[in-house]
Structures are given as C-alpha cells and as structure tokens.
Amino acid sequence: TLLAAAAAQARADGWDVLATRGVEAEATLAYAGLAGWSQPLRGYLAVLPPAQREALEIALGTRTTGGGGDRFLVGAALLTALAAAAEEAPRLVVVDDAQWVDRESLEALLFAARRLTRDRVAVVVARRRDASVSAGVDDLPVLPLDGVDVEAARRLLGDRAAPAVVGRLHAATGGNPLALIECARALSPAQLAGAASLPEVLPVGRRLVEAYAARASGLDAGARRALLLAAACADDDAVPVLAALTREGLRPDACVTATGRLLVEEGGRLVFRHPLVRTAVWGAAPYADRRSAHRALAAVLPRGPARTWALAGSVGGYDDDVAGELAALAESERARRGYAAACDAGTRAARLTPDVERAAQWLSLAAEDAVDGGDDGRARTLAREVLARTEGAEPRARALATLGRVEETQGTTVGARDLLAQAAASARGRLLSRTLVELAHLSYVIGDVDAIAAAAARADREADRADPEQRMHRDYLVGMAAALSDEPAAAAEPLARALAALEGEPTLRDDPRHTLVALLVARWALDPGVAVPFAERRLAQARALGALGVLAPTLSLLAGGYAMLGDHRRAYALAGEAVALLDTLGYRTETGVAHEMLAVECAARGRHDAAAAALERARESVETAGFDRHVPHLARAVAFCAVCREDWPAVVEVLEDQVRRHGGVGAFLEPLGVTPDLVDAYLALGRAGEAREAALAYAAANPDPPRLLAGVVHRCLGQTAATPADARTAFARAVELDGDPVTFDAARTRLAFGRHLRRAGARIESRTHLRAAGRAFEEMDLVLWADRASAELAASGERRTPRSALGTALTAQETNVALLVAEGMTNAEVAAALFVSPRTVEHHLGAVLRKKGLRSRTQLAASLARG
Q: CA-to-CA distance for 27 and 253, rounded, in angstroms?
C-alpha cells in the first residue's frame, strides 16, 4: 500500500515509475526481477558502452552470444541506462518483496543505486522484516514499518467493528494492517459487534499463513488445482497455468473464479491476493501434489529455464536426463553472469544424478559460481560438501581453491595460503597453474620465500609447455622466486619471457585475469617502468569489461608503480578508486595496499584527517587478514603520514620498532629501507649522532642499490655528513644520480640540499634546488610538500608563492575525474570508466575547476599537461 502510494505520488509529480515485485518461485531465475521492470530502459541501450550493453542484453535475454566478465557489469550497465533515462524525466524504481527477487537482479539494482548519488533517480525496496535478502543492504537507509495506531485501525475497519473490538484486535495484531483486515474477515458480525467472544487464536503472524491455507483447503478441487499451479509457476504469466488446467480437462475461468479472489486474473497475469497466499498454498500442499503441479507445467511450457526447473520439481528421485538439463542450464547462466542461478542449477543437478563423481564435479562448479556471485557462505557450504563426498582429485582441488578464494577476502591470509596449498597438491593443468600463482602471491604477503620457491619448482616440473598460459605462469613463478632469492639477477630472463608471452599471446594479452601477473612482473624486476607500455591499456581493458574483481587489486598495484615513477596524481586517483571498489565488493581484507597508498597520498597533500581514516581501514584489513599492526608495509605508511604531520617522535617510535622487528626493510625489500624517514626525524629532534649512524648503516647495507634508491642513499649521507664539504659532495652525487626531480624522492633530495645550502649561508645557490623541488611537488600535486619548498624559499629571501596559487588539495575521486577529462574524455566516457553517472562526473569536475581556480576543461588539460 505504501509503495503504491509512493508510485502514485511520483507519477502525479511527473516521475516515471519502474516497478516490480519478487515472486518466490522466480528466485532461481537469473535477472527475472530485472526483466520485470526494465522494459522502459531498453530504449537507452544505444548510449551504453559496448561491454555494458552486451552484458545487459544477455541478462535480459535479448542477446544469446557473448558474456563473461564480472557480475557487477550488469549493475554498471543499469546505472548508465538509469542515468540516461533520468536526464529526460526523474525515475522512481520500486521493488516489493525483495526477499524473493533473484540475487542477480537485486545486486545489479543496488550497485546502480549506490552510485546514482547526483541523479534524478530514487529507489525504494521493501522486504519482509523476518526475511533475509541475499544482496547486501546493511549500508542502506532503512525505514522500519511499525503497526498503525488505534485510531487508524478504527478507520481501516470502519463501522463493522465496535470500538472495544478494534482495541482488542489492535493489541493482538500490533497494528499490522493486513492482519487487522484478515482478522475482521475471519470474525462473525456478532464478534465484530462485541456481542460474541473473539476466538482464542486470531490469524496473526504465522497463523495468518495458516488461515490462508485453511481457506484454500475449503475450496473445490478445480480452485485448489488452479492455486497450486499458480504457486508452482515461475512467474505471473497466466498462459501456462490456464493451459495446464485445460490439458487436465478443467475449465480455467471457472477454476480461477472459484478461488474467491485468492487468485485473480489481471491482463494476462494471475495474481495472488497477497504473496502469503502463495506461501500458504505451496506450504500446505503434499509433496506428491507439488510434483504433480510441476509435471503439469513442464508439459505445457516451451523449452527454457522455466521448463527445466519445472521438470526438476517433478522428479521424485534420481533422473540423469533432468540432471543433465540442469547442468547445461548452469553453464548457460554462468555465461551470462547469472552466477547465483548457475549455482542453484548446478546444485540441483548434483542432487538428481546417482553418479557420485559427476555430482561432485557439478557441486565444485556450483561452489565456484557461489563465490563468483558473492555468496561466500554458500560457497563454503558447497565446497565442504564436495570434500566430504568424494576423493576425486579435480573436484577436491576446485573446492579447496574456492575455499581459499573465500578465505582470502573474508578470512585470514595464512588460512587462504594453507587452503590453496592443499588445492595445489591435487590440481592439474590450468587449475594447478593458476592455483600456484595465487599461492605464491599469498606466500609473499606472509613472507614465506621457501613456499614461493616450491611453487616455482612445481610449475617448472609440471607445466604443459604447449599451453601458453601454463608456460607463462611457469616463467613468471621461476622469475619471482629468483627475484626473492640470493641471486636476483637470475630473474631477468624468465620474467622477460613471461612478459613477452603476456603481451604477445592474444589469449593472454586480452584477458583481464592476467593483468595482475603482468604488473607484478615489473614488481619483481624492481622497475615499475617495465609496465608503462601496457599498464594503461590493461587498465582500460579491465574497466571496459567491468572486471571489478581484477580491477581493485590492479588499481592498488598501479597506484604504487605510478608513485615510484613520480606520477602522484595518478597514484592518488587510482588508490582512491581501489578503496571504493573494495567496499563495493565487500572485501574485508586485501592483498594489495590500497588503503595505505591512499593514506600516504592524502598526507602528502595535507589531508591529515582523510589519511588517518585510511590508515585505520588499513589496520583493520591487516588484522582481519591475520597479521599484527607492525607489518612493514603498514608501518612505513604510518611513519610517512607522521612525517607529513611533522610528528617526529611518532616517526622514531614506529621505525625503530621496524628495525628491531624486521630489519627496517623498505618498499624494494632493501635492508634498512626505512632510514630516510628516520634520518629526517632524528635531525628534527636534534639527535644528529643517531642520524649519522643510521645513514652509514643504510649505505653499508645497500652498496649497490636499485636505480630508484641510489640518490636516496647519498641524500641521507649528505644530511648527516660531518663536514660541509662532505655534505656538499654527497648531495651533489645524489642530484647527479637522480637527474631532474621527477620522482618524490628526487624532489625531496633537492629540498634537503636546498635547506642545507641555505643554512650553510649559500642562500642564492639554495634557491636553484628549492625552486626545482617546489616545481616538482606542484607538478605531482603534493601541495603540502610544495608549501614546504615555498617556505624554504621564503627563508632564503625569495618571495614566497601565495598558498592560493597552488590551489586546494583535491579528493582522490576528483583527481581521477580530472585526469580522465584532461585526456579528452567526455563526461559520459569518464562515467563509464569509473562506474558512476555523468552527473556525478559533472559534480566532481565542477569541484576540480573551483578548487584549482580554472574556468574550462581546456585549462584543466593544460594545467595537468604541465605536470
């Protein structure tokens, strides 16, 4: 009633309304709910990016070829279509009985709803209070519906009920309007008038369902058959029910009429007076009658999912033919991203076959479908059932790998590593290859170098060299193991072969699943520049395909790589996007460091509150994964944020602890890599002797540092040198190694050199280095550090740049929008890339122009091009 009132009001105000309701029997049909209300959006398919359009067409059944990709791509397509439709008229989406809407439809709608923050779109979803909804709704605003008050109950019942009776009914029902109406219908006129006592048991709550069932049981046989067939039918379409009644020699119209309006025909649809009537009828029917109803519908339905499910419902024992149909249906649903429906079909297929090994195989695939569809609880249950039912190597390996995937995002890293190790023990072929790669990555996070070497050795022995993917994974793992060994130079050749395969083999080049491996090749080569030629292409490819499960860790890796190369605008943008995607996916842990990257980039811009919030999220992720808060990568982020706040005691506390615990390793796994921040803190606190000792130890531990670190080592020596001459020599060597200050560390070296020269009295010479540092920090958009360079310039006697000229620090999403707009993308193209609406892009672009004091997209592009 409330939804109908909302829809009526919206229409009166000029809104278009798209409405649907869940049907219990439809819950296993992927995108059935979406098909029920999206018809008006089909005219907007032309504005969708190709991958989104294909995904939505496959979901709606208007296209039969294609598919693959992430389940969230349908939600992205729905978002784009709704945003386009809202440009013409505001749209209200109304979903009733959400507990019976298929998971795929509800998940797609909620994905879109969460991102349509600036658009003329409103979404109202109703569900029973005692029912769970599979798609996550915990973060949405909720309006609990309580009962009406006594006066409203009196108006609802009218003159039929005496005031005293209304009061007793209100107390018994809690003011539930449906229960009030049904109670009144169940009472005699004398009872309503108060002349006769009320029954001890009123039709309230579960008893309301029983009352409906009792009413249905009192009807004649034809009416009961019509009710049962309608309850068994997968949708409200009247045709199959009427056809089944006719085939059984009954008069359909008479049967429906005899239900006493428990079932009503409306425009080709058979509608129950209330969904609880369907529940009551089906729940009260004997098992044999339910099978008979399914059998009758299967006899009149055309080939398709509804008929297959009707056949499944008609089977009383094993039936290999129906099981085969269900397995084929699971494959079809999987191809169109209907993972929940595929899981349902595969699970039911396994129940109907007497072949234990075939059942285990189908269940292991169903477990994979569950995790791909985001239903981790069900994935665990099915995978554990596989392990309990079979000793077959392949289904057990698949089940263990599925459990490992669930544990990786919802449990502990150590637990995930152990499960994947068990999976690898019995896996073969590509499943083995992929499992070994994932196992190696988790072993790296844990710090188990021996496990990485073992995974590489296994891949070297068993990889099928004729399969490009297995051969690439073998080279990658061998190179990774070598990079982490005592002979890192041996990594170059196998990593080069792996990269050549990744970029040369079309099946590997165009599959977003291999993006992470491609980027990690650069990580193990200790040169992020290796990934520059293909990083943007692979990122755009993952965006276009909506591969969000791949995209989130990809963005984390890219953010780190771009930061090392000095592109802090992009690092900031991608880290923020990665964090947002992790929230969307519901990942409690992450193997990347997106939150830490975001904290570091926020801190370097002076956004200390945002940095603190991101660090707290990083701590939560690390602890959920089974680690303490002292893991090196998190400690380095915490220390750098303290450097930006100039909280020097905190820097010393964190980094001295790291030296004690883990040898103070840096981002390149170099020993004592935390020294640069520690030296700054010691000097700021007047502890020059300790700073000197730390710098000398750092240089001794890294006699031949990677190219990106060589200048940093000499900077530390210059900052702590015993004489001005030694300091100048060390700083000059650092500047020579760095070249132009295009990276943060190079700019930081120039800042430190300029500060040293100014304090030594060489004020004119200092300005050259301070200006270079300031320009570099500005081009990186690191306004806090640009301010520090500006302050040093002012101290040297040069007029300081006004703070307003540097602009206000942008948020990560604003930076992302700015970068994509500067590349020449339209608002619609940016929206498609970031899975938001064009209006959201417009809002962020306006904020960017305002904060930077710019007037146009052209000025923005020119501003960023200078960086």
A: 28
Helices within 463-531 (DSSP H only): 468-483, 492-504, 506-509, 515-524
Residue matched to tokens 């030629």: 533
Q: What pLDDT digit, counting tens, does each position of 328-372 carry?
A: 999 998 887 788 889 999 999 999 999 999 999 999 999 999 888
Question: What's the CA gap between 321 and 113, in Å, rounded?
Answer: 41
* Strands ordered across the beta sheet of 91-96: 16-21, 91-96, 121-125
- Sequence-distant (≥ 6) Cβ neighbours of residue 352 within 8 angstroms: 312, 315, 318, 319, 320, 322, 323, 326
Neighbours of 259 (CB within 10 A): 24
DSSP 140: S
Residue 592 has pLDDT above 80, yes or no: no
CB within 8 Å of 256: residues ≥ 6 apart: 223, 226, 263, 264, 265, 270
CB atoms within 10 A of CB 231: 26
Cβ neighbour number for residue 279 with a 10 Å cutoff: 18
User: Which parts of 174-286 fold into alpha helices (H)?
Assistant: 177-186, 189-193, 206-217, 221-232, 238-247, 252-257, 275-284
Q: Coil, helix or strand for 21? A: strand
Of 796, 786, 812, 808, the C-alpha closest to 559 is 812
Identify the band that residue 387 occupies on the pLDDT scale cut at 50, 70 and 90. very high
- Sign of dihedral through CA atoms 222, 225, 231, 237? negative
Q: Per mean pLDDT, which of 71-80, 279-288, 420-429 is the most reliable?
A: 420-429
Beta-bridge partner residues of 93: 18, 123
Distance CA 840, CA 528 (A): 32
Tokens of 285: 């029917």
Nearest C-alpha neighbor of 437 from the set 487, 423, 426, 634: 423
Token pair in block for residue 406: 């669930």
Quick check: 715 pLDDT over 90?
yes
User: What pLDDT sits at residue 68?
Assistant: 55
CA 719, 720, 725, 726 dihedral sign is negative
With cut-offs at 50, 70 and 90, classify the pLDDT of residue 804. very low
CA–CA gap between residue 15 and residue 21 (Å, rounded): 19
**Single-letter code of the amino acid located at 144:** P
- Whole-prediction pTM: 0.81
What is the full DSSP assignment across 75-96?
A: HHHHHHHHHHHHHHS-EEEEEE
Q: Is the dihedral of CA 787, 793, 796, 798 positive or negative?
A: negative
Type of residue found at 852? K
Q: Which one, of 598, 646, 605, 608, lies nearest residue 803 by Cα?
A: 605
User: Among residues 692, 746, 750, which one has the least CA distance to residue 721?
Assistant: 692
pLDDT of residue 803: 47
Inter-residue contact 676 to 715 (CB < 8 Å): yes
- The three-state DSSP-derived secondary structure of 538-564 is HHHHHHHHCCHHHHHHHHHHHHHHHHH
Residue 128, token pair as written in the block: 């029973």
Q: What sign does the dihedral 833-835-839-845 (CA atoms) show?
A: negative
**Integer Cα distance of 715 and 460 in angstroms:** 42
Predicted local confidence at residue 178, as pLDDT: 84
What are 244-254's pLDDT values in tens digits? 999 999 999 99
């977003």: which residue's tokens? 512
Can you count the helices (H) and strands (E) in the chain? 47, 5
Of 662, 668, 670, 673, the C-alpha closest to 695 is 673
Q: Pick from 162, 164, 98: which is nearest to 133 by CA?
A: 98
Distance CA 656, CA 693 (A): 13
**Which of left, alpha, beta for 522 (phi over 0: left; psi -120 to 50: alpha)?**
alpha
